[in-house]
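Worked example 2:
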Amino acid sequence: MANKRLSREKQVYVLAALSEGTPINGVCRMFKVGVHTVLRLIDETGEALADYMDRNFRDLPCQRIEMDEQWQYVGIHGQRMAQKEKERGDFWLWAAIDPDTKLIFSHLIGTRKNSTGTVFVDDVARRVKGPVQIATDKNRSYACNIRGAFGQEGYSYGTDSKNFDDRDCAPDSQRKNGVAPIVSSEREAVIGNPDLATVTTSHIERVFLSVRQECTRFTRLTLGYSKDLHMHKRAVALHFGLYNLVRKHKTLGTSPAVAAGIEAKRWGLEDVVDLTAKYIARKEEMAFEIAFAEAGL
């Protein structure tokens, strides 16, 4: 059984604490559970939610979508590495949102290379149907990848770039966390005829702010950063799964999955625990069948 060392009730409590940004060691102290037990819960629940979102977030009738990337490191800051390593250093979270339903329907963790952008944009294109308006920043990989994934017609695409006041004379009172204030925003049509009044990346950027606040692995200047790439991916899948299915969005009054028509009602954490148990049971059953087949039984 999935997470058999924890009761269903305690799994709910642990997931609730993790979803609010509580560090793993803090969760262990609060509920008197071992660190490996919590890591196993993150691993299995993240895998189950990633599988659910991959299967069900398809054929979405989005009218608008926004795409952007967010930086974080795994194991060690990229600038402090003597030589590059495959699973340590700087990584980027690529994500796409439907700003009308607030659904994060695609995400990918990888480098910021064009090859990663190609995989990400291809996945986004396979999940939406019908005419759609796309908004991104001016990351150069988007323009060519969007043309390759979406084709030449049936959609519109525009960019939203923000300009900051980087002058040395800008007073500290106007800076937020050391970042200079935004002085202007430039929106440009790239493909088709997008409505420039609604071409923005503000919604996906706001989601990234929630990731920084609520997923401890992304919080700056702490020891909570991911030490392992596999667990980093699982924790992100867990965060977005709870965001899409469980979290009540203030503007919508329900969860993004309900607003998008994927679910009839907002999930509780108990539903997530049950989903994970069924997923792990099905996975173990398939493993047994494969083992029996290989043994010729």
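The chain has a mean pLDDT of 92. The two ends are 24 Å apart (CA to CA).
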